[in-house]
Design goal:
Elements lengths: L2 H21 L1 E2 L8 E3 L4 E3 L18 E3 L22 E3 L21 E3 L21 E3 L21 E3 L21 E3 L13 H13 L39 H4 L2 H22 L10 H34 L1
Parallel strand pairs: 3-4, 4-5, 5-6, 6-7, 7-8, 8-9
Antiparallel strand pairs: 1-2, 2-3
The protein binds 2-acetamido-2-deoxy-beta-D-glucopyranose (NAG) (2 copies).
One 2-acetamido-2-deoxy-beta-D-glucopyranose binds next to loops.
């Protein structure tokens, strides 16, 4: 009596497992390190403890995830040069300290680039110059202390720019002038220096964009004094900056005791995390440990089992009632 029902259940379960395996199989071409979804041309190499980018990533790949690895050495300058079809690239959650000049130069169709949670201290000049289709640039949680002159000049399609939690004190004059599609900026967690005139360009740009309805204009707070950068006038920031040169790092210790800066960063961290949660950007703080994985797997199996038993019971009762 139960035979056909059970067989059907089993068939459904097995075929689902088989289909998901077929869609998300290990890439053959890279020796089986990453998962490939051939229908979507996506390659997922996240959470693999990689210290180098796997070779032989298929040239037709459009989405490449390399986040949550241990990439730290400077990347080979041509790491992505054969992957010109990429529209999405994540290098987030690694240990990158620098990027080679021209590393993204072939990625002319890239729309989404994530470099968040690395150790980037600076960016090479022209690093984004070929990424004219980029709409989202994620640079959150790095150690950028300055931006190169004209770094965003070719990003006319960019809608979202995230520079949260870096060490920026100002941006080069004109840095945002080409961002004609921008709809949201996130600038929290930087020690914006509102005491010298290096901030005036950004203050004016933010003020103008606030009137035009740009989101996030109030996310840049001055390191000292509790004001938002967009409120700063030429009168507030009348002095010359310590370095006249915005592409040069100003040693933090020379301006304020380090403890003050860390306190400030600590204070503004709370609303920022809330905000990220609100937008759904929050990413897990820790990799799941093996016991956690095992627990979630056994939990999942338990759930499946009880679902199966329940449905079998319902079907059986139904069958029995119908017969009676
Ligand atoms: C970029 O995208 C366009 C339009 O989809 C396509 O015609 C072109 O071949 C792509 N370029 C590369 C280098 O893949
Ligand atoms: C900025 O600083 C760098 C490094 O100290 C120096 O090489 C460069 O000439 C400076 N540029 C200007 C405009 O002062």
């Amino acid at each position: 009596m139960m035979g056909p029902v059970l067989a059907a259940c089993l068939l459904i379960i097995l075929s689902t497992a088989w289909i998901s395996q077929a869609n998300e199989a290990l890439c053959k071409k890279d020796g089986g390190v990453c998962s490939c979804n051939n229908n979507k041309n996506s390659v997922d190499c996240s959470y693999k403890k990689l210290t180098a980018i796997p070779s032989n990533i298929p040239v037709e790949t459009t989405e490449l995830r390399l986040n949550f690895n241990s990439l730290s050495n400077p990347l080979p300058p041509k790491a992505f040069h054969h992957l010109s079809k990429l529209t999405y690239l994540s290098l987030g959650e690694n240990q990158l300290q620098a990027l080679p000049i021209g590393v993204f130069d072939q990625l002319v169709n890239l729309t989404d680039l994530r470099l968040n949670r690395n150790q980037l201290k600076s960016l090479p000049p022209g690093i984004f110059d070929k990424l004219t289709k980029l709409t989202f640039l994620q640079l959150t949680d790095n150690k950028l202390h300055s931006l190169p002159e004209g770094v965003f000049d070719k990003l006319t399609k960019l809608t979202r720019l995230h520079l949260l939690n870096n060490q920026l004190r100002n941006v080069p004059h004109g840095a945002f002038d080409s961002l004609s599609s921008i709809s949201n900026v996130q600038l929290f967690g930087n020690p914006w220096d509102c005491t010298c005139n290096g901030i005036i360009y950004m203050a004016k740009w933010l003020k103008k964009k606030a009137d035009e309805g740009l989101g996030g204009v109030d996310t840049a707070g001055c390191e000292k004094g509790g004001k938002a950068v967009l409120e700063i006038t030429e009168k507030d920031a009348a002095s010359d900056c310590v370095s006249p040169n915005t592409t040069t790092a100003i040693p933090i210790g020379t301006m304020t005791p380090a403890s003050v800066i860390y306190d400030d960063i600590h204070e503004i961290k709370v609303p920022q995390e809330n905000f990220q949660k609100f937008l759904g950007y929050q990413e897990p703080d820790h990799l799941p440990t093996q016991p956690q994985c095992l627990m979630s797997i056994s939990g999942y199996l338990g759930l499946m089992m009880s679902l199966m038993l329940t449905s079998a019971a319902i079907l059986y009762v139904f069958h029995f009632l119908k017969k009676a």
